[in-house]
């Protein structure tokens, strides 16, 4: 599953946001079921940011959020995210030709 949270970050606060987001992701990355993360900024709106994490499933994500270290680092950040659905079930996945994504992640496979 993927978790996509969006944020509005005022000009001049980008470095502080990235530091908070990296700390939150660091705490989450130590939890079972964490796969990967990305922190990004919209190309057309420099105040719109996102934190994307990938998990083995909703159970792994929910258990990670209950961990004390994650609550201390991630919950304050998550509380500033847009109030919208953020957890998505992966129903299809594709890797570029010749770049196998490992078991269950190759071209044309479903998750």
TrEMBL record:
Alphabetic keyword roster: Monooxygenase, Oxidoreductase
Single Gene Ontology MF annotation: monooxygenase activity
Pfam families: ABM
Occurrences of domain ABM (ranges): 2-63
Keyword Oxidoreductase annotated: yes
Claim: Oxidoreductase is one of the keywords in the record: yes
Enzyme Commission numbers on file: 1.14.-.-
Protein name: Antibiotic biosynthesis monooxygenase family protein
Organism encoding this protein: Streptomonospora algeriensis
